[in-house]
Structure formats: structure tokens, C-alpha cells
């Protein structure tokens, strides 16, 4: 399987970041399979920087997401509701975390940092399947540890 061979080759620290070779314009398709939401029903349009760490034995991992000026802070989206967590949604279902922190400057929200913890190899595999779909739809590239 492609995903399993990718996972076996992953270093301890890696990241997904916007790929400079690909336009940052979002690909819009009828079946856009993967999205990130902070407010249920409101897709986050800002593409995050994502840093991955994984235990050497593969038993656990952490994904840290950084969003600058996310659209969930826009006044036009305020009526949609409050940030209640980060929801990673695709055709397989939903993963979520409540470890979401906003950073403020001069009393105004500027960014969000969210952490998703994977406690088993199966959760890591599931997350990587989500990221493969999300990265294809949003022009992210994978950069292994150096």
C-alpha cells in the first residue's frame, strides 16, 4: 500500500507546508474530500502549516497546526457560532481535538494553533490518509526532517 510505505519511511519530525511549486489557489472540486473546521459547518479557508512528530517506535505522534488569520475570526462568519475545537473531516469520517489556542495582538485574534495527538499506529495511519487528501486539495507538500 502506498500509505504504509510512506509511513514506514517517515522521519521522527516532518511537516506539511504550502508547496512553492504549486499555486496557493485552492483547487475546487465537486468531491472535495477533506476539510478543516473550527466552527461546525464553516470550512476553514486558510491553509495551515503543519508540523509532525512521531515516536521512534511508531506508537504515537503529534500534529501541530498553525493558522494565520483564519476565516473563523471574520466578522462575516460570527453568526455561524463559536470555535469549539478543530474538526478534520473527510469521506472516512471526522477526527477532532479541543486543544485549540488563539493568539491575540492588540486585543484582536491573529492566529490559531491546534494540536492533534495520535495515540496509536492506527490513529497515525488514519491521520496520514486525511492529510494525503487534504494536501492534494490545498497544494501542500511534504518536507521530511533534515
From TrEMBL:
Gene Ontology cellular component annotations, sorted alphabetically: photosystem II
HAMAP family linked: PSII_Psb28
Signal sequence segment: 1-15
NCBIfam families named in the record: PS_II_psb28
Annotated PANTHER family: PHOTOSYSTEM II REACTION CENTER PSB28 PROTEIN, CHLOROPLASTIC, PTHR34963
Annotated protein name in UniProt: Photosystem II reaction center Psb28 protein
Pfam (any one): Psb28
Keyword annotations of the record: Membrane, Photosynthesis, Photosystem II, Signal
Bilayer topology: Peripheral membrane protein
Residue ranges of the TM segments: none
Record organism: Chaetoceros debilis
Keyword ATP-binding: no
Family: Belongs to the Psb28 family.
Alphabetical list of Gene3D superfamilies matching this protein: Photosystem II Psb28 (2.40.30.220)
Cellular compartment(s): Membrane
Biological process, per Gene Ontology: photosynthesis
Amino acid at each position: 500500500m502506498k500509505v504504509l510505505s510512506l509511513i514506514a519511511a517517515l522521519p521522527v519530525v516532518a511537516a506539511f507546508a504550502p508547496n512553492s511549486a504549486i499555486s496557493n489557489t485552492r483547487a475546487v472540486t465537486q468531491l472535495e474530500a477533506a476539510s478543516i473546521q473550527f466552527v461546525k459547518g464553516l470550512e476553514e479557508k486558510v491553509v495551515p502549516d503543519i508540523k509532525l512528530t512521531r515516536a521512534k517506535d511508531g506508537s504515537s505522534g503529534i500534529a501541530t497546526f498553525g493558522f494565520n488569520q483564519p476565516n473563523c475570526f471574520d466578522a462575516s462568519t460570527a453568526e455561524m457560532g463559536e470555535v469549539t475545537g478543530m474538526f478534520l473531516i473527510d469521506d472516512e469520517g471526522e477526527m477532532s481535538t479541543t486543544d485549540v489556542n488563539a493568539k491575540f495582538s492588540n486585543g484582536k485574534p491573529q492566529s490559531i494553533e491546534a494540536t492533534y495527538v495520535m495515540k496509536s499506529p492506527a490513529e497515525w495511519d488514519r491521520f496520514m490518509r486525511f492529510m494525503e487528501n487534504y494536501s492534494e486539495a490545498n497544494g501542500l507538500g511534504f518536507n521530511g526532517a533534515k
